[in-house]
Every structure is written in structure tokens, then in C-alpha cells.
Amino acid sequence: MSAPNFPGEFLSLQRDGASALHLQLADALRDLILSGRLRTGQRLPSIRSMAETQGISRNTVVAAFDQLSAEGYLESRPGAGIWVARLVPTGWPDRTMAVPAAGSFLSRRGALMAAQPRIRSIQGHPTFHPGTPETSTFPFKAWARLLKKHTSPHGSELLTYHNLNGLQALRESICAYVSASRGVRVTADRIVVTTGGQAALDLLARLLIDNGDKVLIEEPGYHGARSVFAAAGADVHPLPVTEAGWDLDAVTQKPVRVVYVTPSSQFPLGIAMTLQERLALIDHARAHGTWIIEDDYDSEYSFHARRLPALQGLIEDAPVIYLGTFSKTLFPALRIGYVILPENLSEQVKRAISFTGHYAPLFIQAALSDFMGEGHFLRHLNRMRRLYTQRRRYFLSLCQEHFGKVLKPLDYQSGIQITCVAADDFDDCAMAERARVHNLNPAPLSSYYHAGAARRGLVMGYAAVDEADMGSAFAALKAIL
Amino acid sequence: MSAPNFPGEFLSLQRDGASALHLQLADALRDLILSGRLRTGQRLPSIRSMAETQGISRNTVVAAFDQLSAEGYLESRPGAGIWVARLVPTGWPDRTMAVPAAGSFLSRRGALMAAQPRIRSIQGHPTFHPGTPETSTFPFKAWARLLKKHTSPHGSELLTYHNLNGLQALRESICAYVSASRGVRVTADRIVVTTGGQAALDLLARLLIDNGDKVLIEEPGYHGARSVFAAAGADVHPLPVTEAGWDLDAVTQKPVRVVYVTPSSQFPLGIAMTLQERLALIDHARAHGTWIIEDDYDSEYSFHARRLPALQGLIEDAPVIYLGTFSKTLFPALRIGYVILPENLSEQVKRAISFTGHYAPLFIQAALSDFMGEGHFLRHLNRMRRLYTQRRRYFLSLCQEHFGKVLKPLDYQSGIQITCVAADDFDDCAMAERARVHNLNPAPLSSYYHAGAARRGLVMGYAAVDEADMGSAFAALKAIL
């Protein structure tokens, strides 16, 4: 029994064993049906005839027909043969038509998100990349032991849908740490654990910003914050910062919804906000219903004899939302941060995070809580402070030796990067471009400005560079200069 | 030398050793300044006099004064004494005023997000909670070994800012798996790894939806999808589903931006979409510029002899975005999912995810990639399929024995939960409420309906319940009935 016009003689089955023959046959027949070359109601050859034509066993044909019948492509009745099922609609001339360009398929909000600069993944280990801590000194043994401890059937509360706003034990560890070390006013129930500081910023922008709301971002400032607020539709304005401080006049002009600041170690200049500035900022914010977002991203690396506490702790009930992260103190790919909320905002954030799904794996949270509880965290921090103190000193001496008066380091004794300022005609982008060839990745200072005149210079992460590499890196930079 | 009107005699320092005396003194003085009881320019007592009045050592006083000077509260000049620094503004009568209610501080979008039902964390291990896989059988040893392997100085590429849209090795593992197992058309560069399926949905809603855009969500359907789209401002409409299938007429009425479907194992009914329905859905979507989001959340647990491939793989260039997750196959708290994008959407999603910060820890991604590469994943999956086949069979026999005709299980041989349907006058919410007292957590079927008439019944997760527990749980439910 043969079926007229069956195009099956063109089927090409590969006998190299890479894929089972019955699956190849099913795929080929499915393609014929979907492309319209086998039509609704069309009869297929019998199993025997198909097996003979293709030179395969009958079992192979039966298996392929069974699969396609299960998927709905074929129908059969004993004695009546096998035919292509009635698929609606019967003809589909457009079926191979390409989808329209995605641009038109994005929402306006989506287009705004897609218009933000893509933050590129780091490739390899470029020297001087800002914001990069030393990771080789991390206490891997203790960490692996704790991960293992919390990856067991006994910890099965850590495997399902518990603690969406952060493991209680970790929130308590963070609470104890930020109270003691950063002077933050907090209870564990006002902490929400996030998948990093950036994720926390993203969530806050969504909760606090409508299209057109005015937001102030430090200038120069952290471009990740700028992207998040711009993507949320904010009307982003600069909050100018120089070595002389924050220009708070910007806060007093027309209502501002959110001010984003890094008061303990300004990124990228490294200066700290004075008490006067802090009080004035809080006063302005209170008077105008403005939220202050305090990003305390690397305040742990303040090398002053007396560290300034966080802005958040200054005054009870100030409209300050505090962001912390373990990216700089432990390692960036840990993806754990936290947000400390005023009491009247905490329920809303917990609710939002419960359905956005942006919570960190619980076994990591449990391991991190133990890591803090067992003292590894503070020990590591102190080790890193000593190490960075040395590297910072060496870095500054190399600046003096190689950069002379061309690039002047701003040393405010804080942070894991140092900004070197140049004259206004210095082409920092070209310099950074040339450095990249040598696997050096200082960031041009001008890239942290968006609104107007940009200062020139290089923002250089020194923390992950050991002294031997630092010497040769500086020599290479000098050659470029 | 004593200072007139210094209110310091009221300072109360605790000598229980819980907190260093100089910090207590600094805290107390700071409070006096911030509350306005010590005013700008006011002189403080001398170090000696302060030490005597408080009964503490001079060094303690010096340390406290140093700290407050560093913070900017005090100023001093040798010989001229110490006074409160000039803080701007000079008076702050409102400083203890509470912040306005947060409601008024949220954006409209934020209010919309906060208006969604909060997804509650599970407490303990309630029996029959839908969507919960068995976790005690997870290969913890292999997993711990792989985590340890990727938590070492040698893996330091896994510690910083690499691979923001997913570790290459994991994307390749996922690519191989979904191609072979789910018939998905994909290359590794069109996969973006997310912090779970829910996080992927959240990102897609933001990219694809503007306020008022029409979105269809299956009814009954997954409330997490509903929350995400409603929070994005969508005009959410039901896509009715019954045992007879999907009512696709809803797709053809006025332009729909996004259709959210679970075609391989509908949540919570468990039915699979027929080929005819799949083709019709794709045709409608193409004709009207609609995105189809295919959530393949637990298709791995199809117990048919011949599993249906994913909708996504059906036709080249169909406007389908595919979501996968490891929450059901491994464990929910792993927080790893993935989205497979049409080529013309993949750059936009990568760009958006780069600044939202929602990427999973790299060492977990590396461990998971090895877990798949070494065969643990498929072995675990097969073990679970056998286990769930038994548990499913036992569950169905207990249904018959205890539920009789009151609750009729819909057995479509898929998924890790089974929905039992009751008559329209059955109060499934009251039943679920009473069951909770016994630590049983079946979900009322009516809770998965939002638009109109809801069917009644119980959605019961059977996968994480061993046979002994299942027997007693059914006995308890019968008693409640």
C-alpha cells in the first residue's frame, strides 16, 4: 500500500549514531507537516513500505509514528492507515514569516530599560578595575565547610520557599554588625536581604519612582544607580560633588523624590560627607518629602583612625534607606546585599520582593550568617584593611613616582579605588582605551559625569593588585602617558 | 574650668562592660547636641572636669571628644577649649518629627506593587503544599563536592563581575538539556540565567508591559504570574482553561500584548495543550503581535510514555519566550532559572539584566553546570520520576478510598501536584483553613481564579510526601470532610 505524492523519498536520515533514527524520522515528518508539504488528511505510506523506502526497521517507523501521534500530528485507525491530523488552521502561508523587529515589541518602559548602557562583564582579570576587592585571600576553607554544612538533608528548611525576605539568622547577624560597626539604627525585621546592592537599588527605584519624578544622583557618581533610576523613568539630575563637598543647593530646588548618595566614601572621589552636610541633607529631605538612599557600598574600607558612622543612624526617623553589600568585603559574585528600611516602608518592600522572586539562595544565607557568627567576617575584614593599607601606601608612592603632576591622586583614606585627577585637557578615555590593550582597566573619571563639564582623570582599583603587579602596571601606564 | 549650663550631669554611663565607656560618652554627647540641648558654640567642660564629674578616666574623655571631633560635632583649639561645632541649620525643632506615612511616599507604581498579595514564606514542612519537590533525596554529597570545587582561589573568575547574563558553561549545559529533552530551538547565547523563574517573569513583565496593556493569564492559573503582570500595570484578563482545553477566543479579542501559558502541564489542572491549540495560539500571536510566555515550570514530571516537546520548539521564529527553572527538579531555594529568548529580544534582556543586578552567584552556576555535565542532574530526575510515579499512584488510590465522590482527582499524568475537583458548593477555602491546623497545606482551587466563577477543589502537592505520611494525612483530611 503506497501513498501517492508522499515526499518521503527526500527524507535524509543520518546513520552516524548521533541521534536515534526514530527521532530523526519523527523530526523529518514533523517538518514536512509544519511546512505544509504534508497536508491535513494526507495518507502516509504503510509502516512496511516506509521501512523499505528508508531502509530502516519497522520498529523504528512504529516508534516515530507513535511519537507524532502522541504529539497530535498523526491520526490512525486500525485497517484504515495513518494520515496527517486535521490541524487548525488548515493553511499557514505565513508560518515561516519572521517575527517583527523586537524594538516595536518592547513596551515603552522596556525600550527605556534597553536604552541603558549594558554593564559589560569583566573579561579575565584586568588590573585597576574599580570596585574589585582582593579575592585570593578569602577564607575558602571555612566558607566551603559552611556551605557543606548547610547543604544537607538536615537543613531542608533551606531548600524550599522559606524566608523570602531573608533568613532570620542572617538578618540578625547583619543587624548586629551594622549597629556596632556602622552606627545604623535597625532591628532585624527592618532588614531585607537582596541579591546584591544593585538589585536593592533596582527594587527601590521601582517602588519609589514614577515617570518624570526628579532624582538626584551624585556627579561624578555610580553609573549603576543612574541606569536603574533612568530605566525607571526618573528625570535624573546631577548632585554635584567636588573635593569641597556636596552641592546641596540641588536638593532644595523643586521637589526631589530621591537623592542617591554615598556619604561615607563617595564614589569615585572618596570624600566623606561632613556632619553639617548630613544634617542639612536630612533637613531638606524632611522638608520636601524626599527619600535619601544611602549606599554604604565600601565604607568598611575607611582608613581613618576614627570612622564616621552611617548617615542613617544620625537621627531617629530620618527618611533614609540604607544599602549594604558583601560584594566588596567578601566577593562580588556572592550576590548578597541588604536594604535597611524605615519602619513605614518595610512591609511594602517585603511584599514586593515576595513576588519579584529576587531572593538569594538560603543555604548561602545560612553559610554567611555562620561565617559572621564564627568571626570569619570581621577577621577577614581586618586582614583586608591591613593589606589594603599597605597597597594603598605603595600605590600612592608609585603615583608620585610615575604620574608626577599629570595625575594627582585624591587620597581621602577610604575605599578600594583611588581617583587620580588630571588637567581638563587630558584625554582620559583615550588613556583608558590604550591601557586596556595591556590588560589594565582604570576607568576614565569623565565617564562618571553625565550632565555637563566632566573632570578628567583615572579611577583606579588598587585593592586586587599585589605589589609586584602594581609596579609593572604603573610602568606600563607611564609609557602610555 | 567649668562650662555654665552644661547638662552633662544627667549623662548616665553604664559600667557593666557591655559597651566601652568612651563610646557611651560620645553617644550621650551626640544625643545632647542633636536634640538641641547642647547648642552651636556652647563650650564643653574641660577634659579634667568632665572626667571628675562622670567618674571616668581622662583618657576616656579624650577618646570620646576625638571621636566626636572626627564626626564633626565638636571643635577645639589648643588653649581655647572645646565647643559644639556650628551645624547648619542652627535650630531644628522638627528633628524628632516622624516621617509621613509611607503610603504617600511610594510612587504610583510602588503602590501598585505593594498592593499585590504578599507571597508568604512557608513555615515548617506542611504536607501537600503545591509545587514542592522531594528534597531529602537530593544528591547532597555530589553537590557539596562541586560547590567546594568552585569555591577556591583557582576559580577566582567565579568571584567577581563576570558573566552577568549567565556562566557560559551553564548556558551550554542548559542548551544541551532543553534541546534534547524539551525540543527547544536554542543556542547558548539566547539563554539568560536568572535568579529563578519568578525573577525571569518579573523582568519580562517590565520589558514587555506598559500601563494598561492587556495580558492574558490562565484561569485557573499561577498567581505569581498574575502578581508580576498586575504590578507592572497590566490590564490582566483571564484565559479560561478547563479539562476541555484552553479557550483561545480570548486571544483573538482586541490586541493582547502577552499571553502567559503553561502548555505542557497546566498549573494547576495538569492538562497539556494539544497540537491544534498550540498552532492556533501561535497563529493568533503572530497575527496580533502578541508575545507568548511559555512557562515550562515542571514539564520534567510528565508521566506519559511519550512526552510532548515544548511549544517553543514547534515553529521557527514563533514569538515564544520560554521559561525554565531548577526549582522543581532540584530545589526551590537554589534560585536558578533561565529564559530562552527569540534572537531579536536577547540583547535587550541582557542589557536590562546587567544593571538590575539580578544574576545568580557564579560559583553556584559553575557547580550546577558540572552537576549536569557529570550526569547527576538526569540521574536525579529519573530517580524522582520513579519515586513520583509511585507516590502519584498511591495518592490516587487514597483519593478514591477517602474522598469518594466529593473530591475527584484530575489525573493527567503530569506535574508534582494533583488537583481534586469538588462540587460548586464545596467550601474549599474553609477546608484548606481547617487542614492547616493539622499542618496540611492543600491550596483551595478557587484561589487560582480571579475574574469570575471559580471552581472548587483542592490543589495538592504529593511529591514531597512519603507513603506513611500520606496515609495519615488523608485520614486527617477525611475527618475534616
Walk me through the structure.
2 copies of one chain form a homodimer. Chain A is built from 15 helices and 14 strands. The first copy, chain A, has 481 residues and is of the alpha/beta class. Chain A folds into 3 domains: 8-84, Arc Repressor Mutant, subunit A; 109-125 and 138-375, Type I PLP-dependent aspartate aminotransferase-like (Major domain) (Aspartate Aminotransferase, domain 2, 3-Layer(aba) Sandwich); 379-480, Aspartate Aminotransferase, domain 1 (Alpha-Beta Complex), CATH 3.90.1150. In chain A, strands 3-10-9-8-7-4-5-6 form an 8-stranded mixed sheet, with helices on both faces. In chain A, strands 11-12-14-13 form a 4-stranded antiparallel sheet, covered by helices on one side. In chain A, strands 1-2 form a two-stranded antiparallel ribbon. In chain A, helix 13 (376-403) runs parallel beside helix 15. The longest helix of chain A is centred in the C-terminal third of the chain and has 28 residues, at 376-403. The first copy, chain A, is elongated and about 95 Å long. Chain A starts with 20 loop residues before the first helix and ends with a helix. The interface between A and B is large, with 128 and 128 residues.
